[in-house]
Amino acid sequence: MAATYAITDQEFALFQRLIYKIAGISLSEAKKVLLVGRLTRRLKVYELDTFSQYYRMLATGDHPEELQTMVDLLTTNETYFFREPKHFAFLRDEIIRKRSSPSTFRVWSAASSSGEEVYTLAMVLADHLPNTPWEIVGSDISTQVLAKAATGHYSLARTEGIPPGYMTKYCLKGVRSQAGTFLIASELRKKTKFYQINLMNPIDADIGEFEVIFLRNVMIYFDPPTKAKVVHNLLPRLKSGGHLIIGHSETLNGITDRVDAVMPTIYRKP
Questions:
Q1: Residue 16: domain span
Q2: Which of these three, 75, 110, 131, is where a domain ends?
Q3: Over the stretch 100-139, which tens digit does the pLDDT of each residue have?
Q4: Is-catalytic flag, 42?
Q5: Number of structural domains the chain divides into
Q6: Are 202 and 131 contained in the same domain?
Q7: Cβ distance 83 to 117 under 8 Å?
Q8: 110: domain CATH number?
Q9: Is residue 2 part of a domain?
Q10: Residues 260, 270: Cα–Cα separation, whole Å
Q11: Which residues, in sequence order, are CB contacts of 119 under 8 Å at separation 6+?
């Protein structure tokens, strides 16, 4: 009999606990349809009839690559260029313009997804730090989106929000077989690095310290203990006097007292 790929409450609870353990994400009941839609194709690949069978396959530990695929499918979040533009205005007007150090200016996009935030930052830094070295690190738990981000190659449908001057200066429109796409200019791409990092764990990657860390629109998926853990893991990488910037629907109230609020969603490490 053909499998229907329906998921029971008990099976959904298994995946809720699994993705929480791995990525700290709390999947609400409202995400059940999303989970079924994204994971059904994996059951078909392995010719499995139930989500319980798929879960048992993952739980054995014998398929780490499939576990990563499951994480990729359930953690991919929407992003776009110049999202929440007030943060980039603050970066430009309050951080960059008031900076006097000639040292390399480093920014970390800690939940960079497919790279739009990283390259938005790159455009701002290239425009406003023309004579100062700079570097941007992007990280994500998903290897799938990191591979996309590293290419710097996007559909022209993704250009909304990019100022026309930046499109002309920093983006190369594709021609012939690449028509309908654009590529971030190589001088920006060569100043970016991407790492797979699980923010739930202590940061052991050799990524150094940063003047600014963007941690936007990821904590909305975490419960308070997980938020506290993630911020605790990030703060050692933020320089004294550096800024931590979170999403407009997020707050660090009750999460940490190790940074001071500059304005809503923007914090400074003493």
A1: 9-75
A2: 75
A3: 888 999 999 999 999 999 999 999 999 999 999 999 999 9
A4: no
A5: 2
A6: yes
A7: yes
A8: 3.40.50.150
A9: no
A10: 7
A11: 81, 152, 170, 184, 188, 192
**Selected catalytic residue, list 38, 42, 99, 158:** 38
The CATH number for 22's domain is 1.10.155.10
* Pair 32, 138 in one domain: no
- Bridging pattern class, strands 171-173 and 192-196: unpaired
Catalytic residue check, 140: yes
pTM value? 0.90
Domain identity same for 21 and 111: no
The percentage of the chain sitting over the pLDDT mark of 70, rounded to a whole number, equals 98
Both 71 and 89 in one domain: the answer is: no
Catalytic residue of the set 9, 72, 93, 140? 140
